[in-house]
Amino acid sequence: MAKAAREAGIDAEIGAWSNEWTESLRRGTVSVQMMGAWLGGHLQTWIAPDAEGKWRTSQLPNGAMASWGGSFYAIPKKAEHKDEAWKFIEFMATDKQVQLAGFKEINAFPVLNEIHQDDFFNEKIAYLGGQQARLTWREAAGHIPAITVDRYDEVARQVVNDALEKVLEKDADINTVLADAEKQIKRRARRR
Known about the structure:
Low-confidence stretches: none
Number of strands: 0
Shape: globular
Distance between the termini: 32 Å
Order of helices and strands: HHHHHHHH
Mean pLDDT: 92
Number of helices: 8
């Protein structure tokens, strides 16, 4: 899909979180940005606060469902205050009021399913043109399976990103690049 977008001339050819990316969102020169619910909060509070009513949210094309981002907590092996760190993680991840507050303040979609029935989901979001966007996000979240995080995820992410760059920038054959990426990931995982 990325190659088709590049060939059609509809991708911006800029990286997320770059100055160019932020400025393109601020100026409204981007028509679509695939991100998580939290992007609405970023747009509203610091990227494009003057763009109220100009942005909308929708599901991904062709019935695709995906998670993008989220908060991840970890306790380093050498941490001095592991018990306190674990209490903090429990507080952030399992307290209903904390989860709801994060959603209300910064669009941090709550992990706790019981919050998904809160009346807050039904409210219209002025910034997103009066959409009931949280219902859209809830629907997507209901279709996305939980995934297991692995210590090799970052290795795989880098290999896949490098492969995508070869396809987009050097017109490499997709199947060849994917096969090579699979071999690289397996090889690197064995070395660690």
